Every structure is written in C-alpha cells, then in structure tokens.
Amino acid sequence: MKAIVVVAAVALVVVLVVTVAGDCTWSQDITSRSWDESVCPEPYILIGNTTCLYISQWGVVRNWSAAQTYCSVYEGELAVINDCALLGEVWTLTQHVLNLTGNFWVGGSDAEAEGSWVWERTVKSVPMGVPFWLPGHPDGDTHENKLMIADNGYFTDGNQTEEHYFICQDFSTLGSITG
C-alpha cells in the first residue's frame, strides 16, 4: 500500500497552495514529498515529519468503534490532529494524492460531556472553532459525539454508527522520530 501512495505522489507534478478550514493555509509541493517507510511500522507512513498515520482507503470504512478496533490491531489508535499543518497535509494526501472523497474518523469525542470535545487518547481539548471546525459545527446534536475530518478539510461531528474512512496513528514511534 505504501508503494502505491509514493507512486501517486511522484506522478502528481504540481505545487498546491491550499486553503482549507478557514485560515489554515499552507503550501505543499507534493512532488518533493517523501514518506519514509523505515521510520513507521507497517501499515503506517510518516506524515508531517513527526507523525505515523494509516489512512484507510479502497472501501475500508468502519463505524467509529470498529475503526478504533481496527487501529488497535496495528497497535495504534484513531489519530490526534492538533495543528493546521498536520490537518492540511492529511487533507492534501487524502484529496489530491489518494483521490479519496468522504469523511475520516479521528480520535475526538464529546461523549463524556456534551460540547466538551477531547481527544480520547490524551483527554486534552480538541482545537475548537475556525480554522479547524466546519462553520456551524459542532452543531450540538447529542447523537453526533465523535470527531471526523470532512471531505472539505474541516472537523465536523458525526454519529458513531455511521461508516466512514478513518485515520489511525502509531504513537509508539513518536519518540524515535522527534528525538
């Protein structure tokens, strides 16, 4: 799977200047981007120089709980995305390299306290408002307690029973990447 991602990235000869999620703007030359397969364990790839992620694709969709279970099989968890640069790189990869459209589950939730969004792994607050969230979201619906990245690059809340793509993160490799 990693080889396909790298081939797709090499075949795309374009510099993208992308604005997603309001003020989250970055420039990404995909043609010069490489994913070091030796840093992250299978099936993860290095994204953003510090984060090992697996992005489900080719019809691999799950509800939120099943996605979390899928990640645990590979000793990971649903991803924590706390900054614009990583959000942008993930969105660029999903939309412009993998050509995936749809929503992607990540590891945030407000199931414990409605309106209080936290990353399940760390229990730290999910960034709120622009530039992360889709305008008008989270919308306060008590049936939408799990976090996903919408196909437009914003965070949005979703019903955990819906099936979507998902993004897993390997947290065990973090120390070896960042020093």
Q: Care to describe what's here?
A:
It comes from Petrolisthes manimaculis. Helices cover 22% and strands 25% of the residues. With 179 residues, the chain is α+β, with helices and mostly antiparallel strands. It has a single domain, classed as Mannose-Binding Protein A, Chain A. The protein starts with a helix and ends with a helix.
- Find the CATH superfamily: Mannose-Binding Protein A, subunit A
The number of helical segments is: 4
Query: What percent of residues adopt helix (DSSP H or I)?
Result: 10-25%
Characterize the main sheet.
8 strands, mixed
Can you tell me the CATH architecture? Answer: Roll
Name of the level-1 CATH class: Alpha Beta
What structural class is derived from the secondary structure elements?
A: alpha+beta
Strand content: 15-25%
Shape: globular
Computed over alpha carbons, the radius of gyration is 15 Å
Average pLDDT value? 82
Instruction: Work out the count of structural domains.
Output: 1
Low-confidence region ranges: 1-22
Work out the number of β strands. Answer: 10
Q: How far apart are the first and last residues' alpha carbons, in Å? A: 27 Å
Provide the succession of SSEs.
Answer: HEEEEHEHEEEEEH
Q: What fold name goes in the CATH topology slot?
A: Mannose-Binding Protein A, Chain A
Task: Annotate the secondary structure layout.
Layout: H1 2-11, E1 15-20, E2 24-29, E3 45-47, E4 51-55, H2 64-73, E5 77-78, H3 84-97, E6 104-109, E7 118-119, E8 146-149, E9 155-158, E10 165-170, H4 174-178
Parallel strand pairs: 6-10
Antiparallel strand pairs: 1-2, 3-4, 4-10, 5-10, 6-7, 6-8, 8-9
